Structure formats: structure tokens, C-alpha cells
Predict the structure.
Amino acid sequence: MRISADRDRCIGAGMCALLASGVFDQDAGDGKVRVLDPALSPESYGLLQQAAQACPAEAITVLDEHA
Ligand code: SF4
């Protein structure tokens, strides 16, 4: 499973970092998303789907490579 975040779309709302703080962080300079760990275990899938759905800018993509 892989995750990506589009920094051009990100508006720095911080929902992703709030929901999955081990995976996302916000840049100290511009407040936009940073992905800390793009290759994740399948157990994280539900949480990351939640984070993707919570993002108001639809900037997060979760790819389940086993699906
Ligand atoms: S939730 Fe979306 S808009 Fe907010 S920081 Fe994360 S990627 Fe950016």
C-alpha cells in the first residue's frame, strides 16, 4: 500500500496530521502536508482512507496495491 499527498492541492487544514500523525505532518514553513511514511502496512488502510476522506482539498491518495 502506498500513499501520496498533492502539495499543490493541500490547503493546510491539518485533518490528515490530526487523524494519522505518524503518517502525515505539516510543513513548519507553509503548513502544507508532508508524508512521513509513504509505504505502509495494510493495517493502516482504514485509518488512511478516513484521513483521505477528511481532507477538504481531496489531496490525499491511498493506493491499495493488493486490491
Ligand atoms: S487534510 Fe488535506 S488539506 Fe489538510 S493538511 Fe492534510 S492534505 Fe493538506
Observations:
- The chain has one domain: 2-63.
- The chain has a mean pLDDT of 92.
- The first strand starts at residue 2 and ends at 5.
